[in-house]
């Protein structure tokens, strides 16, 4: 176990490490030793210097080997068995076995002889923690300063007894009595080098730097690598400073004072030191995020990325379980490239507002009061924030307005003391919560390591406590766990915990290292004395460097009291502001504006400008330039418009996107639909989709006018209202407004109408869409906001009202980008009803072919990583510096006010600078200057004047108004009013823009309407403007594609929650054209072209160093070169580029005459000659032309440009020629600056580049830092302000979590506060709290959710219509012309039943008329003259597979249904009703013998309990005896006598087996006939149906086998019933002999009603209507003499049925699909069990030839539904050899016997039938289209294809056959002929010369026997090569053919 990963705790518990660390602190020569807290719990900086990292790689082998010898144990480790010491030797701790003292304290002054090459080191004994034992060790076996180059093994001497030559550390550790319980390891026990001090005494020196030891702290000055957290690579040259100068600053714990000095004295290093000290986004971030690209050694890259499994000792690791490393591994893992869980970046966020309710000020105290000094704020420049800690807090009196008291920390302590339910299983008796002392000590350590610009975060403390607690109880927890997390140390014997007496001392020690950043005050009696002392120190100015004061009152006999006071100006300001609720924040700002407190700020600004007040400058400029400007403006602004009007130079880049559904939106709409279907399909009956006929909806949006108009716009253009049939063609805006509801004061009226509508229309499904659903989740009972806001709590009042919850026809869909607040423990939404936006890629495959790529939060964050050309997220360091300075100067002003005023100042100055007042450049930041100049210049590049949009986000409405007014005035003074618009976007009002710009928009968008005004931001596409976006939260407003800059520098960064943060960033979400390669490709170009340059420039340490100087000095040239992630550098500062208008001496604006040049000449400095300028221009143009597509110039040109810029002091705004300066390759060239030279419209690039976002530094740090799970820090923040964490004891989220897993995480770990609308939604039975008809759709902002849910409405509507409609076959009968036309009418049109005697006279119609047999062979009945043209009407060969003609029919109430139908009436019939026990079924065997098969047939019935009354069982054994049959004489209105059999395959879901409605509720017996392998699935879907399971030998058989077995079983059952009932005195002929055989696709039945009331007998009218199957069957069953008919059927329905077809009500012809079969009469006529197709035609012909009657009722018809699955389609013919699906043509279905043909995996009979259908002309060439000479087919009908006619004859004696006297046949087909076929029978028929014969038999032997038996060789000539077989293997029993020619 010894050599585990660096940074782990090994076997020491927390307290021991703590003591050791404190000792190290005291002994350390260094100013700031690394705090223990960072080592243990913050997974600190994890930055390896290149040297350290290299050592890791070099020693990898050593580590492996050591592990080989190490213990294999998983947890708990097997205790190490020491060899017993030799008898009689010394075993005293601290002495060797020879009895000599080895303790350093004892022998420090003795002379010790050390052999050369050996060093003295100190070893730690676990039994003597306070002592070091002196040893002499060969230095070759010790590491160098960098932890490298230690040889494996050991060589050492005992300095006590002098024994030498110990070769094993195990042996040596025994000798010096270490008494180890674990495997001895030198790395674990040899701790310190020992050195002689000035007095010659031996003392403890530096730590031995074993691998990773530097991460456990204890740095000392003797080892450079341990003092510097990361070393700068040698190649880094830092401007203005060398790396050695920076070393002190690089230390993470540089005290605040030091940093202050650095800022004062060395501006160039100050920013760097603060960044490093911050531990946030400085070099560390870049080091890690860029995969350490700044470090040159390849080994670094190899070692730091630890993604693979751990070494073998870590048995518990699994790649799927993040918990193994994240949740349980409390030690550091320096090999993970993520930044630390609690590293500095994350800490710059703040406690959440109202985490535990609003902060009370002051908190009720106890004991003696403490007086707050009067002038506290004046002296301190900030209100101290007092966090109440443990114990009692005293009263405060006096000037209590100058302090803020918060219970936040107290609550955190309390929560961390209450064990979570998750840990109760471990037993609270053994596991105690973390002690108060330890909590406070950890808090001190946490505060010590915070940087001066960081703010403590409660969540970090909670995680620290959680991990500390787990660490101290690992052994107990481990006992309860199956799998062991990786690298858990063994816990030794108990170490005494920190006592209250030790606490102040330990806290003081910890704080002693931080240069008074944390000050500890210890009190004896109560906190009051400590607070008083603290106030006194504050007033005296003694705490100026102190950010935190910790007051501890600890005594032995009672619990500790404590509190923590935040005295740092920055921290106190942020924390106090974070405690304001949103409404208090607004009130405070408003108050400061109204009372004029901000005027001091204004006057301060005016003093800054040496030239005088800005307003005076503006006025002066206005006066001087009035005439000049107007002429130049008329040239530059009006010219494009004029050109546009004449159509000569209109811009082609501008196009408005039309409404279209993207693949993603369609996919989401389908997911929504499937969720709706699953609710309907569930057995809970919460949604009966079948009962709805149409859709209606209402969309609820937040009360933002723009969002409202935007939704109306989408709704209008989607066409959904017309599609749903809700509105007529001429749609008006007023009508559309009925479907969108703003959640404002008037919402209730509209909502009431909606509810009323839903009650009045129970057959309409109402979808209530709650868009932007996270916006108002206030409970209707509570409100944080002032009562004037009526909208607060409206969602709860309306959407959660009882009427909505209970209405069975209302489905609520919540739509949001931030669903977290709807995913709490009390949510109304089931996790199964959540729909998440799908990801576009899965395993690298693009799932949806999108033309555009979405840019959201993760892509923005990714752009900040090294390797991307432009960071899209930036912060503005000079702005932040100014804000911080002013914050100290104006402590009473809210920072939002200060930030806003500074930013307005920056924008004003930037506008002035662009207009020629170049001195104003010093009063703005590079970022603001870049934004402003690009805004003003963008419209000049386009002939039509298109420009970019800048969004300036100012949440506070009063401040937004101030900003608007100020910027508006500045714009007017600078005469820029026609250049760009300034728009004040307020949630409650519409958009107001100037008339000039409205006209421009109308021209661009081709709008004719005179009164048109833009109502949504999307309609501002292409308008150059600053949109001041106000309102506390964005409310779903979308921004146009022309958005280029999203300035979020003013968002409220003090009270951040995840939703708020992501919502603000969501404004910038954007679609870019996916054809454009992302920036990574761009960077790779540079890599290929100039690798040297990359290595020298990709050095972000340097960038940080230059950042400080840039921000302080504001030197444009220096700023241009600096490029870090502070946008000082990253933002195109470099890129940026100050264009013509920014250069020092350029003219203010270009005169009218020069307009043509203005697009080309960028700047013209006075010092430059014109030639120089021209050269520059040519170079830039060249760069622009060659690289427009790549956005990158060739490197040579790029460098040229760079040199030019340096020499000429100009810069160029051009993406292709932007300077790529030598200090900044990581943030490559600009995509957002523009090529002014080429007059290219900004809009061409708009669709290709996402906007650039500027953030406050605090927010930037949170967004771009990651915690240990790899997620952005922001994702671990509290998700929403009205929810709270359920427990401090919660794991971190994991990077691998899907949206669903995130949802489950929040559902487990968050609870709503009382103000949340879900607060009261709790129930002990958890499932009851979910509302069954609520869904939640979540997806990233601006991704297209509105389009998705509108599309969902569309497909839901279509599905409802489809649910009530069905596609039925609608085809005319075929071969009508061949029908024997006779004038004789046998029955009257109105006859109800056939007359038996009359019916016997009707001749049988051999011709097939069913349209499904259009491709079947015609059956000749007599000598017919059929024109070949008649048959050519049938479909061509290639049309055979085309879709048959169908029509869509509305389902009637008498339809048969599939498994998807659910309704109240048939629930019990189906067996799904939850009120009834699930239907149990029993399996019954039923056997009968059948001579033709030569064996007994074993069938199985599955009979549900509810259907057992239909069967007879033997009494003792319950054996199935028979199925009950009624009597012929039985008459009952509610009973169907004929059992119905439905053979089915592959249609368990889609088969129409629910006959409840078709039978109109009548009792009936319905049996499904299924194959054995499908039994289980059919039983699952139809649990209440009787199943007849065919024997397994029929698994691959066709429908013929099912028909055969149904008929044989039914006849056998008839016999059994006759025998059974005969005993009861009933005659055999009285038992009902009919069964119904129905297809599984029969959906509805119709009856024709004939009205014969006309004057003449022949006159009649008829109507066809839908009737129940019950009515039809009862009518047929009531037919007189019904038992004399063998087969009864009905017509196939067709919409084209004509009167002639139903003139004769009864026909004697073929019947199909739905037949009643008399099993008694047809006893001797069998179905052919081998058949797959046409088996019903074959059977009809057999029945007729047997002299039996077939009757078709023409007044009844059956509709057949088109079902796309199952049935005959389930037979696939594929090769037996390979599994790869290869299409096999029917020609390959037969082959020559014994050939090497590919065998097929299909039944022989199927191959035969398919072959004959398509290729029978090969066997019967003379028969092709020769309908006058058909093929003679004996005893069977096989389909030979539509171009060959057949004549059917039966060989049975006394059978009815057609007269063949005049017929000459063109062929003879003998198929498996039996003994009835004899030679004499065949000799009666005449054949054409050359007619062909085909004999088909089971095997070759019977083939020959048949030829001989039938004497075929007399008339037919055979050749050996004319023998064939089906393409089956021998084991599959192929069929054999023999063909011959008639002689």
Structural class: alpha/beta
Mean pLDDT level: 77
Low-confidence stretches: 1-12, 29-79, 213-365, 482-495, 630-648, 784-788, 1076-1238, 1427-1441
- Helix content bin: 25-40%
Please summarize the sheet with the most strands: 12 strands, mixed
- How far apart lie the N and C ends? 98 Å
C-alpha-based Rg, rounded: 46 Å
Walk me through the structure:
The chain is an alpha/beta fold. The protein is built from 62 helices and 56 strands. The strands form 13 sheets. Strands 34, 35, 38, 39, 40, 41, 42, 43, 44, 45, 46 and 47 form a 12-stranded mixed beta sheet that branches. α11 (267-278) packs across α42 (1100-1113), α16 (408-417) runs parallel beside α18 and α27 (705-718) crosses α51 (1345-1363). The longest helix has 33 residues, at 614-646. Residues 1-12, 29-79, 213-365, 482-495, 630-648, 784-788, 1076-1238 and 1427-1441 have low confidence and may be disordered.
């Amino acid at each position: 176990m010894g050599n585990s990963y660096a940074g782990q705790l090994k076997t020491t518990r927390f307290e021991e490490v703590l003591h050791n660390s404190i000792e190290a602190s005291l002994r350390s020569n260094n100013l700031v030793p690394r705090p223990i807290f960072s080592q243990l719990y913050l997974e600190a900086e994890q930055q390896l210097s290149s040297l350290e990292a290299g050592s890791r790689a070099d020693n990898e082998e050593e580590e492996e080997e050591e592990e080989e010898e190490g213990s294999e144990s998983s947890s708990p480790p097997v205790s190490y068995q020491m060899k017993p010491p030799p008898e009689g030797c010394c075993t005293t701790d601290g002495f060797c076995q020879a009895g000599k003292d080895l303790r350093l304290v004892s022998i420090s002054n003795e002379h010790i002889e050390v052999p050369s090459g050996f060093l003295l080191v100190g070893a730690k004994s676990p039994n003597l923690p306070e002592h070091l034992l002196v040893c002499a060790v060969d230095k070759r076996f010790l590491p160098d300063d960098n932890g490298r180059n230690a040889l494996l093994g050991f060589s050492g001497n005992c300095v006590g007894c002098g024994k030498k030559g110990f070769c094993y550390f195990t042996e040596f550790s025994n000798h010096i009595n270490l008494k180890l319980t674990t495997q001895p390891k030198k790395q674990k026990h040899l701790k310190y080098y020992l050195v002689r001090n000035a007095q010659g005494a031996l003392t403890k020196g530096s730590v031995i730097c074993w691998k990773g030891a530097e991460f456990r702290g204890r740095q000392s000055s003797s080892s450079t690598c341990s003092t510097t957290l990361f070393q700068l690579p040698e190649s880094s040259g830092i401007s203005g400073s060398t790396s050695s100068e920076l070393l002190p600053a690089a230390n993470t714990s540089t005290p605040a004072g030091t940093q202050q000095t650095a800022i004062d004295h060395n501006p160039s290093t100050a920013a760097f030191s603060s960044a490093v000290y911050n531990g946030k986004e400085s070099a560390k971030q870049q080091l890690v995020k860029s995969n350490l690209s700044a470090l040159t050694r390849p080994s670094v890259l190899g070692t730091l990325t630890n993604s693979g499994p751990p070494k073998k000792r870590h048995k518990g690791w699994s790649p799927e379980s993040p918990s193994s490393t994240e949740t349980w591994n409390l030690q550091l893992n320096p090999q993970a490239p993520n930044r630390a869980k609690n590293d500095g970046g994350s800490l710059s966020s703040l406690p959440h507002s109202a985490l535990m309710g609003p902060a009370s000020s002051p908190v009720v105290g106890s004991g003696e009061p403490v007086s707050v000094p009067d002038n506290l704020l004046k002296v301190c420049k900030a209100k101290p924030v007092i966090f109440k800690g443990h114990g009692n807090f005293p009263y405060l009196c006096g000037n209590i307005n100058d302090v803020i008291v918060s219970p936040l920390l107290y609550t955190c302590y309390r929560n961390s003391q209450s064990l979570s339910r998750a840990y109760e299983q471990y037993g609270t008796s053994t596991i105690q919560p973390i002690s108060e002392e330890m909590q406070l000590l950890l808090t001190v350590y946490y505060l010590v390591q915070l940087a001066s610009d960081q703010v403590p975060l409660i969540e970090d403390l909670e995680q620290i406590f959680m991990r500390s607690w787990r660490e101290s109880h690992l052994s107990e927890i481990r006992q309860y766990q199956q799998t062991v997390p990786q690298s858990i140390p063994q816990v030794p014997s108990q170490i005494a915990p920190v006592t209250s007496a030790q606490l102040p001392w330990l806290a003081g020690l910890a704080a002693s290292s931080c240069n008074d950043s944390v000050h500890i005050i210890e009190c004896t009696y109560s906190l009051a004395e400590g607070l008083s002392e603290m106030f006194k120190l504050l007033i005296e100015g003694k705490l100026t460097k102190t950010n935190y004061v910790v007051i501890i009152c600890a005594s032995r006999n009672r619990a500790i009291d404590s509190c923590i006071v935040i005295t740092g100006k920055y921290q106190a300001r942020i924390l106090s502001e974070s405690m304001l609720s949103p409404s208090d924040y607004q009130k405070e700002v408003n108050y400061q504006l109204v009372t004029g407190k901000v005027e001091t700020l204004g006057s301060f600004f005016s003093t800054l400008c040496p030239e005088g007040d800005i307003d005076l400058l503006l006025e002066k400029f206005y006066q001087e330039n009035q005439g000049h400007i107007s002429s130049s403006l008329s040239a530059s602004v009006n010219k494009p418009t004029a050109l546009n009007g004449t159509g000569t130079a209109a811009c082609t880049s501008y196009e408005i996107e039309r409404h279209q559904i993207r693949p993603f939106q369609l996919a989401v709409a389908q997911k929504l639909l499937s969720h709706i279907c699953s609710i309907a399909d569930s057995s809970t009956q919460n949604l009966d989709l079948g009962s709805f006929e149409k859709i209606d909806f209402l969309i609820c949006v937040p009360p933002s006018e723009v969002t409202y108009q935007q939704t109306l716009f989408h709704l209008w253009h989607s066409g959904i209202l017309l599609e749903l049939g809700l509105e007529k063609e001429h749609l008006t805006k007023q009508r559309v407004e009925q479907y969108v509801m703003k959640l404002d004061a008037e919402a209730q009226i509209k909502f009431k109408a909606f509810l009323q509508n839903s009650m009045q229309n129970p057959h309409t499904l109402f979808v209530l869409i709650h868009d932007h659903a996270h916006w108002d989740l206030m409970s209707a009972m509570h409100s944080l906001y002032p009562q004037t806001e009526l909208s607060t709590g409206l969602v709860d009042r309306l959407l959660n009202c009882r009427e909505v919850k209970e209405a069975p026809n209302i489905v609520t869909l919540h739509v949001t980008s931030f669903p977290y607040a709807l995913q709490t423990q009390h949510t109304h939404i089931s996790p199964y009803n959540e729909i998440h936006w799908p990801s576009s890629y899965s395993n690298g495959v693009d799932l949806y072919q999108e033309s555009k790529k979405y840019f959201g939060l993760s892509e923005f964050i990714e752009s900040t990583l090294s390797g991307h050309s432009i960071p899209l997220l930036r912060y503005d360091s000079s702005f932040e510096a100014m804000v911080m300075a002013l914050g100290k100067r104006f402590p009473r002003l809210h920072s939002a006010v200060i930030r806003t005023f500074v930013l307005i100042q920056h924008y004003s100055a930037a506008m002035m600078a662009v207009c020629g007042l170049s001195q104003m450049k010093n009063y703005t930041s590079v970022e603001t200057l870049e934004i402003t100049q690009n805004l003003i210049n963008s419209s000049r590049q386009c002939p039509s004047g298109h420009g970019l949009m800048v969004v300036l986000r100012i949440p506070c409405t009063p401040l937004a108004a101030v900003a608007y007014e100020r910027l508006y005035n500045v714009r007017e003074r600078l005469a820029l009013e026609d250049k760009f618009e300034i728009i004040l976007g307020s949630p409650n009002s519409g958009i107001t823009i100037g008339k000039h710009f409205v006209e421009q928009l109308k021209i661009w968008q081709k709008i004719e309407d005179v009164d048109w005004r833009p109502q949504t931001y999307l309609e501002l596409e292409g308008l150059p403007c600053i949109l001041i976006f106000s309102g506390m939260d964005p409310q779903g407003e979308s921004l146009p594609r022309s958005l280029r800059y999203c300035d979020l520098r003013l968002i409220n960064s003090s009270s951040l929650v995840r939703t708020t943060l992501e919502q603000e960033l969501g404004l910038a979400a954007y679609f870019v054209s996916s054809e454009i390669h992302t920036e990574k490709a761009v960077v790779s170009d540079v890599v290929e072209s100039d690798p040297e340059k990359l290595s020298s420039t990709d050095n972000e340490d340097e960038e940080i160093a230059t950042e400080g100087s840039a921000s302080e000095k504001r030197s444009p040239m220096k700023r241009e070169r600096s490029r870090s992630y502070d946008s000082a550098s990253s933002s195109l500062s470099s890129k940026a580029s100050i264009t013509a208008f920014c250069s020092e001496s350029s003219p203010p604006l270009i005169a009218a005459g020069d307009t043509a040049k203005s697009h080309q000449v960028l700047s013209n400095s006075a010092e430059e000659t014109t030639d120089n300028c021209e050269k520059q221009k040519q170079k830039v143009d060249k760069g622009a032309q060659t690289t427009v597509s790549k956005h990158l110039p060739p490197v040579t040109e790029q460098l040229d440009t760079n040199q030019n810029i340096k020499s000429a002091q100009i810069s160029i705004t051009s993406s292709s020629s932007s300077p790529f300066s030598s200090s900044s390759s990581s943030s490559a060239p600009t995509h957002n600056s523009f090529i002014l030279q080429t007059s290219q419209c900004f809009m061409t690039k708009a669709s290709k580049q996402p906007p650039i976002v500027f953030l406050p530094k605090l927010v930037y740090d949170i967004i771009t830092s990651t915690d240990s799970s790899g997620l952005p820090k922001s994702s671990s923040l509290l998700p929403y302000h009205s929810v709270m964490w359920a427990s401090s004891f919660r794991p971190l989220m994991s990077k691998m979590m899907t949206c669903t897993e995130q949802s489950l995480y929040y559902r487990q770990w968050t609870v709503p506060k009382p103000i949340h609308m879900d607060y009261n939604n709790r129930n002990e039975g958890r499932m009851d709290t979910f509302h069954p008809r609520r869904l939640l759709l979540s997806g990233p902002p601006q991704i297209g959710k509105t389009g998705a849910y509108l599309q969902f409405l569309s497909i839901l509507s279509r599905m409802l219509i489809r649910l009530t409609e069905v596609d039925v076959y609608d085809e005319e009968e075929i071969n009508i012309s061949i029908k024997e036309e006779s004038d004789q009418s046998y029955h009257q049109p109105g006859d109800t039943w056939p007359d038996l005697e009359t019916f016997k006279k009707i001749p049988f119609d051999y011709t097939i008329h069913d349209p499904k047999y259009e491709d079947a062979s015609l059956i000749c009945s007599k000598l017919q003259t059929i024109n070949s043209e008649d048959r050519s009407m049938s479909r061509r060969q290639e049309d055979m597979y085309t879709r048959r003609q169908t029509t869509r029919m509305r389902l009637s109430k008498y339809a048969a249904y599939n498994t998807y139908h659910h309704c109240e009436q048939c629930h019990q019939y189906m067996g799904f009703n939850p009120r009834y026990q699930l239907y149990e079924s029993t399996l019954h065997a039923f056997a009968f013998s059948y001579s033709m098969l030569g064996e007994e047939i074993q069938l199985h019935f599955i009979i549900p309990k509810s259907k057992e009354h239909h069967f007879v069982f033997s009494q003792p054994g319950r054996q199935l005896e028979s199925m009950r049959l009624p009597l012929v004489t039985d008459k009952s209105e509610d009973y169907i006598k004929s059992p119905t059999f439905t053979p089915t395959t592959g249609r368990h879901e889609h088969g129409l087996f629910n006959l409840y409605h078709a039978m109109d509720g009548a009792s009936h017996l319905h049996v499904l006939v299924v194959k054995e392998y499908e039994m289980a699935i059919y039983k699952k879907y139809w649990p209440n149906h009787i199943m007849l399971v065919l024997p397994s030998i029929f698994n691959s058989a066709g429908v013929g086998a099912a028909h055969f077995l149904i008929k044989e079983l039914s006849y056998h059952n008839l016999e059994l019933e006759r025998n059974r009932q005969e005993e009861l005195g009933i005659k055999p002929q009285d038992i009902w002999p009919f069964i119904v055989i129905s297809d599984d696709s029969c959906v509805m039945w119709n009856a024709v009603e004939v009205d014969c009331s006309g004057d003449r007998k022949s006159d009649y009218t008829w109507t066809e209507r839908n009737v129940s199957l019950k009515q039809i069957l009862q009518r047929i069953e009531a037919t007189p003499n019904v038992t004399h008919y063998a087969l009864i059927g009905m017509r196939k329905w067709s919409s084209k049925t004509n009167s002639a077809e139903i003139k004769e009500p009864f026909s004697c012809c073929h019947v199909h699909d739905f037949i009643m079969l008399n099993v008694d009469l047809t006893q001797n006529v069998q179905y052919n069990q081998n058949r797959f197709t046409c088996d019903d035609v074959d059977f009809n012909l057999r029945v007729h030839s047997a002299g039996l009657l077939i009757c078709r009722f023409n007044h009844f018809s059956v509709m057949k539904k088109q079902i796309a699955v199952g049935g005959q389609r389930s037979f696939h013919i594929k090769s037996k050899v390979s599994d790869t699906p290869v299409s096999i043509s029917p020609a390959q279905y037969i082959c020559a016997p014994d050939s090497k043909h590919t065998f097929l995996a299909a039944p022989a009979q199927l191959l035969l039938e398919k072959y004959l259908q398509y290729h029978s002309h090969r066997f019967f060439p003379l028969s092709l289209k020769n309908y006058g000479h058909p093929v003679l087919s004996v005893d069977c009908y096989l389909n030979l294809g539509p171009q060959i006619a057949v004549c059917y004859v039966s060989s049975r004696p006394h059978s009815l056959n057609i007269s063949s006297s005049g017929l000459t046949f063109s062929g003879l087909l003998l198929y498996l002929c039996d003994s009835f076929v004899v030679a004499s029978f065949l000799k009666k028929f005449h054949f054409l010369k050359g007619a062909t014969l085909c004999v088909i038999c089971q095997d070759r032997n019977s083939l020959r026997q048949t030829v001989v038996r039938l004497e075929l060789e007399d008339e037919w000539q055979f050749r050996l090569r004319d023998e064939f077989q089906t393409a089956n293997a021998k084991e599959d029993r192929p069929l054999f053919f023999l063909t011959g020619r008639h002689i």
